[in-house]
Write a structure and sequence with these properties.
Number of strands: 0
Shape: flat
Mean pLDDT: 75
Largest sheet: none
Low-confidence stretches: none
Length: 216
Amino acid sequence: MNNKEIDTNIEQEYKEIIEKNRNIILNKQVESKQKKVQKENKKARKQKIIQMKYNFYKPIVPYPLLLDFEDVTYEDPIYLNYIKGLENTVPVPKYWKNKKSFLNVKKCINKKKYVIPQNILETGLVDMRKSIRNKEDNMSFKAKLREKLYPKTGKCFVEYQKLYDCFFKHPNEIEYLRFGELFRPGIEMEKKIKLNVPGRISKNLMNVLGIDKTLP
């Protein structure tokens, strides 16, 4: 055999190997696409079934506004909805179905700085701490080490009556969360809107406008 014939045979074998590999790769791609389509079909079927159940239970349930899409998967969604509508019930937080972990996202970027309340400022503790810090800044390194080894107590002395007035007579008003209200990031920045019933006027507004109870 000549060298040319050998080269042609090698080229043909090489081409056959490449074609086989291409066919194998194409078959794998087709199989993977088919599997994805099957999975998508399963998800779509589940969603359709849940949607049908949701549409079925929506008019039957006693509190349709409280019915969630996930409540349909419960054994008795009507009873679950009835429990949700009862008084003094704490709802499940909505972030339970989020993929991100709770408090993972920083939403309090524009948070206000902490301000010391007025009742604590009146005791004079802030001024005492400032004066002590100024003294420590002017001290030498050896004196600072001595204070760490042998600290002195009784530097900040405040009268008992001032502390009593601060925490008992003039306490700082703290806004606590309401019943059933759960903590979430940025809740301090939100404005609390009072729910007013339409058609009812307060007594102060009636006095200002000069409206009597006899008027319609």
